[in-house]
Design brief:
Layout: E1 4-9, H1 16-27, E2 34-39, H2 42-51, E3 56-58, H3 77-82, E4 87-90, H4 93-98, H5 103-115, E5 119-124, H6 128-132, H7 136-147, E6 157-161, H8 175-193, E7 201-205, H9 210-217, E8 224-227, H10 234-245
Parallel strand pairs: 1-2, 1-8, 2-3, 4-5, 5-6, 6-7, 7-8
Helix pairs in contact: 1-2, 7-8, 9-10
Bound molecules: 1,3-dihydroxyacetonephosphate (13P).
Length: 247
């Protein structure tokens, strides 16, 4: 049985003090049947971890594939572990598109994270042009296999399918289409990695809101959501957690 995973990616939003206010609100809300994770900015991570209920996991939105040294502006796995962070989002489409992270870079980051015992949320998803040509399944398959090249054990990996055209646009992928792609991803994992396909969690992300969360989370192959905009408001995010709890 895969527990639903309700994850929020704050992207470049919220200062440390805004994150503290959020923590105060969400700490009052109790939940039992789902796992919850939030990814604030690097700067807010340490104080957010301290202020947040232990029940909620935190993640960084990125990390460096290098150990340490002359990499100005980068953040290492050891720096993150030192402040109690053991989850990371890797390969978000904004990092791939705006910061030129290729599948090879994403692969190096996933390998580094796993080697240092992180749990990885690996993001995949096609652009509108790819979907317009009906090539989204092949595109996502290619991204998945290249991002995981040389990795045999997917135990510490969660996949997030986030079609780029649905991110921050208000255009949600229909629950049916999201389910179809997540089912495809599970079947690709089954063919390439075997039985882990039954356990691995596959999330959907892209304009998830309190109003559509329940329908999305009800799909057989969707094990959670990765929420951007609607995770910035504690009340909205709580509604999305409730949608997962109620299933
Ligand atoms: P939105 O929920 O704002 O569309 O963002 C989704 C996302 O990119 C989460 O990583």
């Amino acid at each position: 049985m895969r527990r639903k995973y309700i994850c929020g990616n704050w992207k470049m939003n919220k200062t440390s003090s805004q994150a503290r206010d959020f923590a105060e609100k969400i700490n009052k809300f109790d939940f039992k049947n789902v796992d919850v994770l939030l990814a604030p900015s690097f700067v807010a991570l340490e104080s957010f971890r301290k202020n947040l209920s232990e029940k909620i996991e935190v993640a960084s939105q990125n990390l460096s594939q290098f150990n340490d040294g002359a990499y100005t502006g980068e953040v290492s796995t050891s720096m993150l572990k030192d402040i109690g962070v053991e989850n990371v989002i890797i390969g978000h489409s904004e990092r791939r598109e705006k910061f030129f992270e290729s599948n090879e870079i994403v692969n190096a980051k996933v390998k580094k994270a796993l080697a240092d015992d992180f749990h990885v949320i690996l993001c995949l998803g096609e652009a509108l042009e790819v979907k317009a040509e009906n090539k989204e399944v092949n595109f996502v398959k290619d991204e998945l296999l290249k991002s995981l090249a040389g990795i045999e054990n997917l135990q510490n990996i969660t996949i997030a399918y986030e079609p780029i055209w649905a991110i921050g646009t208000g255009k949600t992928c229909s629950a049916e289409d999201a389910e179809k792609m997540c089912r495809e991803i599970r079947s690709i994992i089954n063919k390439n990695y075997g039985e882990i396909s039954k356990e691995i969690r596959i999330l959907y992300g892209g304009s998830v809101k309190p109003s559509n969360a329940k329908e999305i989370l009800s799909q057989d192959n969707i094990d959670g959501v990765l929420v951007g905009g609607a995770s910035l408001d504690a009340d909205d995010f709580i509604e999305i957690i409730k949608a997962g709890e109620g299933l």
